[in-house]
Amino acid sequence: MKICICCSLSFTKEVLELTDKLEAAGYNVLLPNGVINKLYEKNGFDPIKAKIETNAIKAHIEKIKECDIVLVCNYTKNNIINYIGANTFLEIAFAHYYNKPIFALNPLPDQPYIYDEIMSFDIKVLDNDIAKLDKK
Questions:
Q1: Cβ neighbourhood burial of 77 (10 Å; 0-12, 13-18, 19+)
Q2: Range 107-133 burial, b when 16+ CB lie within 10 A, else e
Q3: pTM reported for the whole predicted model
Q4: DSSP 114
Q5: Average pLDDT over the chain, rounded to whole?
Q6: Are 96 and 102 in contact (CB under 8 A)?
Q7: Fewest CB atoms within 10 Å of the CB: 61, 94, 116, 130?
């Protein structure tokens, strides 16, 4: 089964650790190119420049299109618990459009500017337990 991970690039370390667990469980994991290349860790990282140069948004939407399920890795960022940023929100919308089952690693955030939309996407929360993927 192919899982496409959607996340903030600032979660690279956590996502790579999670990917090891998912692959050990037999999943084929599709990652954002920025995570694969650990762009967030590079000196002088400029997220806008990186997205333009790597065509990151379009490339990841193609991964969403080819996967079986989408897993949103939402950890704490900038004091926002279970953060979902603009780019991840965009990817969730495409997953919804392509009728992909969407899972969130952690409970959904209470972010006012996307709350209604996030709640309308029928995202299943795993409560940080990837074993629940097999039950869905």
A1: middle
A2: ebbebeebeeebeeeebebbeeebeeb
A3: 0.92
A4: T
A5: 91
A6: yes
A7: 116
Beta bridge partners of 4: 30, 70
2-135: CATH topology: Rossmann fold (3.40.50)
Is the Cα dihedral 122, 128, 129, 133 positive or negative?
A: positive
Report CA dihedral (107, 110, 112, 115) to the nearest 10 degrees: 30
Q: What is the residue whose two structure tokens read 């667990």?
A: 21
Give me the half-sphere count of Cα atoms (radius 13 Å) on the Cβ side of residue 41: 9
Residue 136 has pLDDT above 50, yes or no: no
In this structure, the dihedral spanned by the alpha carbons of residues 6, 13, 130 and 75, taken in order and rounded to 10 degrees, is -70
Residue 24 has pLDDT above 90, yes or no: yes
Could you give the CA distance from residue 116 to residue 135 in angstroms, rounded to a whole number? 27
